[in-house]
C-alpha cells in the first residue's frame, strides 16, 4: 500500500517541475534573441498553416519541426551558459563546444526550413 504522504509529495513535486519548466521557457523567450527569432518564425508558419489550410498530417509535422527547433535552441542556450559559467574567458575547447551546440541548432533549423518548403511551396504555385 502506498503512503498517502508520498503520493502527495509526488503531485506537489510534479506541479513544481511544471512551474520551473514554464519559468525557463519564459526566461528564454524574454532574454534570448535567438529564441525570439525562432519563435517569430514559428508564429509566421503557424499563421500560414491557417491561411493555406494545411492538412492534419502537415500540422503535425510542422509542429514537430517547430518544437524541435525551439527545444534544440533552448538546449544550445543552456550549454552556452554552462560553458560561460565554467570558463568565462575565451578558451579554444569551450569555443568548440559552443560551435558544436550551435551546429545542432543549424541542423534542426535547416530541416525545419526544408519541411516548410515541402509544405508551402506547392501551395504557392
UniProtKB/TrEMBL annotation:
Amino-acid positions noted as binding a divalent metal cation in the UniProt annotation, renumbered to this chain: 32, 80
Co-factor binding comment: Mn(2+), Zn(2+), Cd(2+) and Co(2+) support activity to lesser extents.
Residues reported in the UniProt entry to bind ATP: 20, 32, 80, 98-99
Binding site for substrate: 73
Topology term for the membrane: Multi-pass membrane protein
Domain of life of the native organism: Bacteria
Chief location: membrane
Cross-referenced Pfam families: DAGK_prokar
One of the GO BP terms on file: phospholipid biosynthetic process
Record flagged with keyword Transmembrane: yes
Catalytic residues of the enzyme: 73 (proton acceptor)
Required co-factors: Mg(2+)
Subcellular location: Cell membrane
GO CC aspect terms: plasma membrane
GO MF term set: ATP binding; kinase activity; metal ion binding
Transmembrane segments: 100-121
Keywords of this entry: ATP-binding, Cell membrane, Kinase, Lipid biosynthesis, Lipid metabolism, Magnesium, Membrane, Metal-binding, Nucleotide-binding, Phospholipid biosynthesis, Phospholipid metabolism, Transferase, Transmembrane, Transmembrane helix
Family, per entry: Belongs to the bacterial diacylglycerol kinase family.
PANTHER family given in the database record: DIACYLGLYCEROL KINASE (PTHR34299)
Protein name: Diacylglycerol kinase (ATP)
Organism: Leeuwenhoekiella palythoae
Classification lineage: Bacteria, Pseudomonadati, Bacteroidota, Flavobacteriia, Flavobacteriales
Amino acid at each position: 500500500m502506498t503512503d498517502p504522504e508520498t503520493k502527495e509529495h509526488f503531485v506537489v513535486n510534479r506541479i513544481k517541475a511544471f512551474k520551473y519548466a514554464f519559468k525557463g521557457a519564459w526566461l528564454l523567450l524574454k532574454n534570448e534573441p535567438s529564441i525570439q527569432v525562432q519563435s517569430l518564425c514559428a508564429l509566421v508558419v503557424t499563421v500560414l498553416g491557417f491561411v493555406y489550410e494545411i492538412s492534419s498530417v502537415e500540422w503535425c509535422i510542422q509542429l514537430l519541426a517547430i518544437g524541435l527547433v525551439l527545444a534544440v535552441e533552448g538546449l544550445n542556450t543552456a550549454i552556452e551558459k554552462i560553458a560561460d559559467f565554467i570558463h568565462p574567458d575565451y578558451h579554444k575547447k569551450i569555443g568548440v563546444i559552443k560551435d558544436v551546440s550551435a551546429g545542432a541548432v543549424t541542423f534542426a533549423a535547416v530541416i525545419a526550413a526544408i519541411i516548410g518548403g515541402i509544405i508551402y511551396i506547392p501551395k504557392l504555385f
